[in-house]
Amino acid sequence: MSVRWLPALLWLSAGLLLLTALVDFSPAWREALVAATVGCILLALYFTRRLYARFTALREQLAEQRAEIESLQLELTRQQRRRLALIDGMPIPLLICDEDAMLRYANRLALEWFGFRHMTGKSLLALTFCYDLYLLMLKAVRRESAVSGEITFSFPKERHTEAHIWYLGEADSHKLFAIALLDKSELLRLEQVRRDFVANVSHEFRTPLASIRSLAETIHDDPDMPHSTRQRFLNLIIQEADRLTRIADDLLTLTRAESMQPVREVFELAPVIQQAVQEMEGEAQRAQVSLTVELTPGIRLLANRDQILQVALNLLSNAIRYNKPQGSVTVRTYTEGHTAVLEVADTGIGIPSEALPRIFERFYRVDKTRSRETGGTGLGLSIVKHIVEAHGGQVEVESEYRVGSVFRVRLPLYEEPAPSHKQAS
Ligand code: ADP
């Protein structure tokens, strides 16, 4: 019998003995019964105390265990929150699906990608509209292992990704799988840009090289060629070689502008523009184009002086080369709020509106022949745009076909830092 019942049994026995003692027995019996009752009571008291002490110890132990469980639960909740925050903040979209391709979880980026606020309970197909991803998911379910593949999404916008799916284990008698999507669209776009650039560069080099070769061959194959024709051909070879040098120089300038942070200094804009105008005066005279200069003194920039000079030279050169005889070019500098503006306006051939969005692209020319004849490389405006944007500025163009163009470069003004007022102690 369990020791828990002993005090109760003893108390019961003491009661029964006391009742029996009340019956009309001889005094000797009564004394014996009272003594037995007292004995039982003492024993009952002793065992009751022991039992009470055991219960108290047990209760304390239970309270301790409960506190421990509560703190473990708290830690578990904290850990789960931390894990969710980690997954939620990950810079790649992450989904968790069960074996029926139903969504159990989606991190913040995954929600953003597919334009949903909540997505649990939806099927993977209904969320992504991507059958290829669904098939990849079924493959992972079948194999119960990691699978990956190239997946292209067309909803809500086109994205080229590498999808990785792996088995997480079981929860609530469901098999869970994680899906991570690595966006490769930007990488593929850059790869395409690089391929196009290399193709364009080779094309640009091939034309003058082919001319040089055929001119040289003609001279070589005809030793009796008249002296004047030979001289003309040799001049053409020199021109084509110069063109190659110009392309190489512009490519180098563009690459430098792209890859290096410009070394900046504080300088006044007016003298730099004046220098560019002086350098272009000869070209303007040859093209019978007049140059007008309206410079505001005191405009200061924190910029790379050489690069700003390059911007002015390129814009001036274009304004002269794409002008008409007796045309004019006006160069202005002024300020607008905290911005310095360099404006180059011409009365030239203008740019057709459909070509305007493309003129800052590398090697883009509206009229290839005119560009080539005037010594253009198709890189001048790309260099301008690149330099200006690297300085935190913008370049814009307004143009009317056959009437003229205005190029405006906006750059942040250099403003003297306010002197710090030290309090006299
Ligand atoms: P390019 O070396 O051919 O001049 P740019 O990059 O400087 O190359 O200019 C790209 C094209 O934009 C030019 O080929 C020309 O067609 C057009 N363009 C640039 N500036 C002017 C301008 N001021 N007036 C008319 N067309 C211009």
Explain what the structure shows:
With 425 residues, this protein is α+β, with helices and mostly antiparallel strands. It has 4 domains: 2-84; 90-183, PAS domain (Beta-Lactamase, 2-Layer Sandwich), CATH 3.30.450.20; 188-260, Signal transduction histidine kinase, dimerisation/phosphotransfer (DHp) domain (Helix Hairpins), CATH 1.10.287; 261-418, Histidine kinase-like ATPase, C-terminal domain (Heat Shock Protein 90, 2-Layer Sandwich). The protein has 11 helices and 12 strands. It has helices at 6-22, 27-88, 108-114, 124-128, 131-143, 185-221, 227-259, 269-286, 305-321, 368-373, 380-390; strands at residues 94-98, 103-106, 147-153, 159-171, 174-183, 265-268, 290-295, 300-303, 328-336, 339-346, 394-400, 404-412. Strands 2-1-5-4-3 form a 5-stranded antiparallel beta sheet. Helix 8 runs parallel beside helix 9. The structure holds adenosine-5'-diphosphate (ADP).
